Amino acid sequence: MEAELQALVSQAEAGQDTVSTWPALAEFKATFVGPNGSLTAASKEIGKLPNEQKPVFGKKVNETKQRLEVVFDSIRERIENAELAAKLGPQVDPSLSVSENQQGTEHPLTQVREKIIGIFRKIGFTLVEGPELETEFFCFDALNTPASHPARDMQDTYFLPADFVLKGGGKRGSENFIMRPHTSAVQIRTMTKRKPPVRILSPGRCFRRDTVDATHSANFHQVEGLYVDENVTIRDLKALLDHFVKELFGSDAKTRFRPSFFPFTEPSFEMDVQTSNLRKLSGKWIEIMGCGMVDPNVFSHVGYDADQVSGYAFGMGVERIAMILHGIDDIRHFYQNDLRFLKQFQFA
Amino acid sequence: MKFSLSWLKRYIEIDKTPDEIEEALNLSGLEVEGVETLGVPTLEKVVVGEVVTREQHPNADRLSICEVKTGETELHHIVCGAQNFKTGDRVPVALPGAILPGNFKIKKSKLRGVKSEGMMCSARELNLGDDHSGLLILEKNLDLGTPINEVFPEGEIVFDLAVTPNRPDALSVIGIARELAALFDLKITKPELKEVTAKSAEQSPFLDSVEVNDHGFCPFYTAYSIKGVKIGPSPDWLRKDLEDIGLRPINNVVDITNWVLMETGQPLHAFDAAKLNGKCLKVRMANENEKITTLDEKERVLSCDMGVIADAERPLVIAGVMGSIDAEVNDGTRDIVLESAWFKPESVRLTSRRLGLSSDSSYRFERHVDPEGVAYAARRAIDLILEIAGGTLLGEPKICGIPPSGPAPISVTPSYFIEKLGFNVEPAAIKQVLESLGLCVEEEEANWSINIPPFRPDLERPIDLVEEFLRIHGTHNIPASPVRVTGLHAQDDPLAVFGKKATTHFAANGFNECNVYSTRANEEIESFFGVEYAEKLKLANPLASDQTHLRASLLPGLLEVMRLNQARGNDVRRLFEKGQVFHVLDHEVVEMVSIGFIMLQEPLQRHWKDPVVHDFFTAKQFVMEILHLAGISEGKIDFQPMDAPIWQTGHCSKAGSIDDGLLLECGVLDHQRMAGLDLKGTILAGTCCFTAQALRKTIAKKEFRPVSDFPPANRDLALVMDAEIPAGQVLNEIRTVCDEACTEEFDAEDISIFDVYEGEHLPTGRKSIAFAISFRSMNRTLKEKEVNHAFETITKAMTDNTPYELRS
Q1: How many angstroms separate the CA atoms of A294 and A292, rounded?
Q2: A269: which of A43, A257, B224, B554 fits an S-S bond (Cβ 3.0–4.6 Å)?
Q3: CA–CA dist A77, A85 (Å, integer)
Q4: Poorest-confidence range of A142-156, B54-68, B433-447, B450-464?
Q5: How much of chain B, in percent, has pLDDT values that exceed 90?
Q6: Which domains does chain B have, with CATH numbers?
Q7: Of B26, B517, B540, Cβ closest to residue A219
Q8: φ and ψ at B630, to 5 degrees?
Q9: What CATH number does the domain containing A117 carry?
Q10: What is the pLDDT of residues A285-299, one digit of tens each?
Q11: Count of domains in chain A?
C-alpha cells in the first residue's frame, strides 16, 4: 500500500514537466486528487482496513497529498512565471534610447518672465493681467499723454480701424482701439478698481509698429510694476530696483539711474546695470528698464489724491532681459521657435 | 539733435573730454545716442613718410615690400598691399604703437614671412572719407616725420542727442551749453546782439502789412525787412558747422536762418520780398483743399485747421513746418523778409502729423519754443545777414501780438523735496542746483517761490523741480537702502495663475512652448477662418504685409513653427502656445485667452521601438486637461462633431460657444490642407479659448466632499442601438436614470463605457455600448438585493420605449 502511494508521488514528479497551461494543470491534478483520481481511489481503501491500521494509513495518505501539492505548486509557479515573462517581453537593453515623450520646454521668454516675477513676488507684488486690445484712452490719455503731446510719437502704435467694434465696448468717446504698446494700461485699470495701497505686476505681450530686425520686434513682452502707498519715495524705488538687479544678475551687480522722460512718471529714469558675469557685456552699463515716480496727473485720472499718496512704476522688456541673461544675439530667435533654440533652455 | 564740439565751445569754455561730456549728458537726462569723429582724429605715431624703395613680395603677388623714410635717418620696412604709389611718393605712415580709428592697433608683424614695421594708410584709414582704393598720396612739400594732425585740420567731434519730448530747451546748441554749464559749474556766454547801426529810417517798400487772423494759433508774429542782400555761398565756418551736423548748405541767407535755428532753437523763415504778392503777409488758416508745393518739391493739400503764412494770393509757408518753393530765397533774391514767430505747439504738431511732414522747425514748434527767443533769434540772424550777405535793415519790424507768457512761478518748500526724494539734502544745495539751471528762487522763510525761465515750459509743478534737482545733483547720490515691504492683501489674477499652470502642464507633457506673432497675414486669416474674420480683424495701419491682422487662433502660427522645424530637419512632435486670440461674434470682436497645441499622431523620425499612435482621443484628453486646469467640470461640456475646413471630418469635435465665453476644438487636422502647407505627418490639434471674464469666474475654491469607507457594487449594462447615436447622449440618459433608480441610501457614483462594438453578431448599422455602473453607499455595504433592484429599474428604464435594446 505504501509503495503504491510512493508510486503516485513519483508519477506526479515525473509528469510535471509536461504541464504548462492552466487547463493542463487542472487535468493533471484531477488524475490524482479529482473524484476519479488515483489518490482519491487510494484513500477510499481506508474503510477496508482494520481499525488499528486506519490512522497510520490515513496519515500516509495525507502525507502523499501534501507531497502532491508541492508538485502542483511548483507547476503553478512555473506557469505564472512564464505568463509574466510573456507579458513583460524579453529582458531590456537599458542602454537603448527612449522614443516617445520627448522632454517639453517652457519658452525662454516664459522662464525669464517667471524669474523676474518671482523676485518681485517675494517682496509682495501680485499679478494682474489685462487685454491686448486697448483704447487710446487707457494707453495714452489716462497715462498723461494727450493726443497733442509729442510724447505720443515716442511709440509707433498699431491702430484698429475707426469702425472696429469690440464686444462689450470700452470706448469713452471717439478714441480708437489700439494694440497695447505697453502694459501700463493694466495699472490704470487696477487703480480705478482698487484703493491704495496697491502693489502689482502686469506682465504681458505688447506691440509696436516696428520693422523687425535683430534688436526690434513688433511683438514683445513686458513686465511692469506699480506700487502706490503713503510716503513712497525715490529712494524706495532705487532700493527696490537695486534689490531686483542683485537677485537677477548676482550680488555684485551695480545700477545707475539716468534721468529720462516718460509721460506717466515724474521724475523718470532709465536704469542701467553693470555686472562682471555677462560675457561680452561684462563691465558695461546696459540699459534694462524704465522707471519713475507716478506722475500726479495719472493719480488724478484714477481718482487718487496725489497729496495723500505717492508711488513708483517700472517696466522692462522680457526679451531684452532674456537676451542679456543668456547672451542671445538676435531677438527673432524668440519668435522663430526653432527646437534647437528652445531646447537649449530646457530646465534652465 | 546734433551739435559739434567746436560749435558748443562758442558759448562755453569747457575743457572736458568728449567722453566726459557724453557721460555728464547721459547722466543728466540728455541721452547721447552717438558720438562721431569727423576728419582726422588726434593720432599718435602717424607721420608723413616717403617711399624710398618698392619691391615685389616674394610670396604674394599683391604685396610689395617698401622702405619708408620718416625722418633724416629713420627707415622702416613696410609690407604694403596698395598699388597706387611709386617711390618718392609721400604718404601717411602709421608706426608701431599707433592706434588708428576703429581701435586698429599697429604692431610690428610679419606678412607672408616678411617683417613689416608699420602701415602706410589710405584716406579711409585716417577717417578722411570713404576712399580705400589705395594710399593717400600727400603733397611733396611736407616735411618727413610731420605728425599727420599737422597736415590735416583738426577733426571734429559731433554728438547726437536723443532729446526727450519734455526738453525743448535742449534743442539748441545754446541750450546744451546751458545744461553743461549747470553740470560742470561753468559760465555760458550768449552771443551779444549788435546795435543795428545800419538800420535805416526808410519804411519797407515791399512789406506794407502783416495780419494775424487767429491769435490762438499765432500769438506772436514778427517780420523784418532787409534790403539789398547779396546772395552767395556761405563762409567756410558756416558751411562747416552745418555740414558737421548733417545739414546741406544752400546759400548764405538760408544757411544763416538754419544756423540760428540750431544755435537758439528758434525757427526762422526768410522770404524773397520780390515774390510777395500784395506786399503783405497773412497768418491764417488754410482754405480747405488749398494746395502748396513745399521746398521738398511735393504738392501738399491743406485743410482748414492748418496754419499758413500767405501773401495776398497764395500760401507761402505751412506755418511752422515748411516753406513753399514760391517764395524761396535764391540767387536772384535782392530783398528779404525775415519771419520769427511763435505758433501754438498742438496745431503745428497736428499739421505735421497729418501731412506726414516733419522738419527741424516743426519739431521745435510742436515742443514749445522759448517765447523770449523769438526776438533774440531774429536779431541774431539779422546781425549775421548784415555781416555776411550785406544789406540794410529797414525801419521797424512788423509785429503782431505779444510773446506768450512764460511758465508760472512754482511754490514749494524744501521739505517737499526731501519728502519725495526720501533722503536728506540741505536747502542751500537745492537752491544752488535750481539757480544753476536759470531758475530764480525767492525765499520767504520756509516757502519758496520759484520763477521759471521761459525756455522751460516743462516745469509746472513742484514734482518737476524735484526731478530737476535730482538730475543735476546726481542720481548716484540716492543712498542705497533695503527694501521696505508692508504686507498687502491681494491675490494673483486667476488668469495669470491659470496661464502658468497650463504652461507647466503642457511642458511636462512633452510639448515645446512657442511664441508666435499675434499679427498675421490676411491670406492666412481668410483661408483658415473665412472672409468675415479677415474683414473684422484687420489693422488700420499695418507695417509689414504679413502682419496685417489680429490672430483668430493659435493653430496657424503653431503649424508655421512645425513647418519651419520640419524643414530644418528637427524632430518636432508637440508644440503649444498660450496667448490672446480674437474671434468674431455678431460682427463684433471678442478677445479671448487661448491655449493651443499641435502634435504629430506618430513621430516621423525612425526609432528602434514601435511608437504609440495617438488619435482624436489624445487631443480630446489634452483639451479636457486644460478645462480641469481652468476649473471647469467635464459634465458641463458637450462635445459635438464639427465640420470645419481645417479639420478632418469625422475626427474632430467642438464644444462651447464664444457667447458662453468658452470655445473648444480638437481632433485631427485636415490632411490635404496640411500637405498643402508642406507639413508632413498626421497632425492632431486642440484649442481652448476663454474670455477673461469667464475664466476669472470658473476658477473657484475647492470644497471637500467626504469619501465612503464601504465597497462598491458593480453591474454591467450592454445596450444595442443605432450606430449613429452618440455615446455621450446615452451616457447622459443613463446618468439621469441612475439618479432616479438609486435610493437615498446609495448612489451610482461612477458610470463608464468599457466597450463599443460594431460587427459580427450585430445587424448592419447597429452598435453595442457596454456601461460599467458602480453603486456605493456612504453608510454601509450594499445588499445584493437592493443593488439588483436598482439595476433592474435602470435596465428597464433604458430599454422600455427607447431606441435601445438590451444586448443578449
Answers
A1: 6
A2: A257
A3: 12
A4: A142-156
A5: 74
A6: 2-39+157-184 (3.30.56.10), 46-154 (2.40.50.140), 209-401 (3.50.40.10), 410-476 (3.30.56.10), 494-516+554-698 (3.30.930.10), 713-806 (3.30.70.380)
A7: B517
A8: -85, 0
A9: 3.30.930.10
A10: 999 999 999 999 999
A11: 2
